[in-house]
Amino acid sequence: MSTETPSPEQLALISKQLADIDMPPPPDWGPTYLVIGLLFIITLIATALQLRHRYRQQHTTGVKAAPRHYALTRLEELETSWRTGHCDPQTVGFRLATTLRLGLGLTRLDITPPIEVDPDEWRQLYQTLYQLRYTSPVDPALINQALFDQARHYLTLDQDAESGPC
What we know:
By secondary structure, the chain is mostly helical.
């Protein structure tokens, strides 16, 4: 091994030979920045949608419509279970009264009508539900299609009155 240093002429010759070598171009970072930007935007959109969904779950705009809709659905289920004989009359009375109370947004079912209806019809329904719930033995003839239709009428009547003509 020689440890001699090259002379300036040799260095010039080496530099002249290396002058023909081109360096590769620098990497193109554009696609990388594009992918990172798109991922960032997708993450922002997903976060915004999640926050919007959570906000809507906590602050429903149709607060009055949701219990009524649930009550109408529950009324259909209760009517089906009554027709098939899965519920005894007393259970039907309790569940029907609870469904009506929750659907109308009441804290307690009372003999005075909570909405603009005929007071005599409401009193009749209230007394029928009272008999179903609190008398023993319960007369199964008290439960009929008209009872369910009347409860459905009150649940939809309240909805129609609130929606109004405008």
